[in-house]
Queue: 2 jobs
Job 1
Amino acid sequence: MRHVFLLFVFYSFLPQTGYADVPSKPIVRTEFTETTAIPGQPLTLRITVLVPTWMPQPPVFPSFEVPNVLVRLPSRASTSVSERVDGETWSGVSRAYRLYPMTGGQFVIPAQPISLTYADPDTRAPIPFSLETEEVRFSGLIPDNARDVVPFIAAESLSLEQIIDGTPDTLSPGDAVSRKVIAKVGGVSPMFLPSILTVPEQEGLSVYAREPVLSESDNRGVLSGTREETLTYVPSHGGRFQAPPVTIKWYNLKTGEVEQTSLDGFELTVRGEVPPPASKRDDIRNIVFKAFGVLLGLSTLIRLGVHFYPDWRERLDAAREKWHASEDYAFKTVLRAVSAQDLDRALKALALWDDRSGHIPAQQQSQAVEVSLARIGQSLYGKATKKVSDDAWRELKEHLQVLRKRRLKTDAGHRSRSDLPPLNPGNNV
């Protein structure tokens, strides 16, 4: 800002006459002639601020930054200027910007404020003032023959260099091999270069990536530079692994053609045992997990059984004793003996059933049951046929079922009467 300071000194010694007839408000001018560029190529925007006297300090220009637009200031971006306005000499500052669209499409930079301070024409007192630039519109245009270049990069030159540190053909598990790729580009900033190296997903091969290193230079507005990417490969077991090739498609600004720059890949050979395929290891792992799950379940069941077995056993024994002491169990024992046509077992079971048949006395057994038992005895010790014997057993079973229904009904009625309160609870008989 040396020129601004010299202007300030120069104008401070001028005779302070004639300013009253000159417009006192500063003005701003926007110059933007070319409005279309290939992504990565610059468009020049110039903003000029003029005041009727001088500026005791430099104006505050905007940055003009918007998404997908790279904004750069060239060397000596700001210069002191002077112009004739209404016959008077005005002083000011002009600033140049380079706008680089990073993609294809339309871009709009809205009006931006500029803050400045200039000297009052009459009193030389500093006056703060604010101006506003014009809206700026421009576009990034991808050539028709380069629309398939994704991501798009346009340059005057592009080359790739590969540096391998290590011996990829004689490795042991745990050894490391580093791969550095350097992309050199001319006519565009290296910021527009895409990622070069991809991390391969190979089982048994760990890959570590360093942060990319960018270096940029500017030669009278023509940008160039390098992008370095480094991967380190570390195998964990024996086998063969691949470092894939590298290919970059780009649009040549000099020839107007799409070109391709490539690097060969290479193989990493690792001594040592090669593990089975992942599918087989997964099968073995699944079998082991399932077996472990079964063992864990059995162990849990055993522990639960040991803990709760005494209580379960006690309850089971109590339930079994209750069942054996029931009328239902005694009657089923009778039916089993009848079905087996075992008279001795049937008589013993009948005696047990009589004891558990509620409130019907044993001597009130059905006459039909007695007759059936008598017929069975005659068939066993007489000359009755097999058919007569079978009929006698079948009749005994039918009579027993009828008798049981009558006994259960009588027993239920007796219990209901015994549950009723006395008719005259106040009388003592």
Job 2
Amino acid sequence: MKLGAHVSTSGGLTKAIDRATNIGAEAIQIFASSPRAWRFRHPDDEAAEEFRRLSKQENVGPCYIHGSYLVNIGGSPDQIEKSIDSLVNNMNAAGKIGAEGVIFHGGSHKGKGFENVFDQAVETLQKVLESSPDDVWLCLENSAGMGSHIGSSFQEMGALISGVDHPNFKVCLDTEHMFAAGYNISSPEEIKTVMSEFDDEIGLEKLVAVHANDSKVELGAGIDRHENIGEGHIGTAGFECIMAEPSFKNVPFFLEVPGFEGDGPDKKNLDLLKRIRTNLGIES
């Protein structure tokens, strides 16, 4: 179980490795380009090669790219076209820098109903995978259950996994999103049932990454609000429960927390997770 964080690439791609080592991150997630714009800036060859070299030298990995927040597989034809281009650009960047995959949000069906955008969503994801490198994973992240967002239930995620039917289509689970969507992963009694349902609907072999975030909101609130580890409704005991669950044993964890100083994922949050890992006797 490697413990890492989302880190900034401000100032250059390789700066992410420096920031990772400064906080003790063993694995990293980055944005390859602005997540709030369709325009994509591809990493140049020299920066990509140096990123690969430094990642190996500092033993920082795996690396995942987080896709654009604008992606919406349930959107209008124009959004679909732009979403395909955005995801393919990120997948190509991931291949170039040696990242494992691209994690993305499914977006919203805008009240049309999941079943009414399902075929469109499947076709969109198949087109992305057909145009992407063979050694990069496309990873659907669960949503927190807000409004018409796609993928807050294991049933919806499993339907997409089955519909797309591609070996490179994987899943990233966000602990805050799971909790907000009503999956009580903070309870030793209930987490077994939750992950058994995940296995039945999706398959544990599809789980390749975890976003480790505490929750500002209560169980089932349906709101995406991340909190620092131990300061939210999941709590330290909840993360002890999560990290002790065998389903997560070999899956990298990435912090996306506000940070104790408000500067994003930090050493203090990572150290909290590392302490839990040590106490549980889990190897990195």
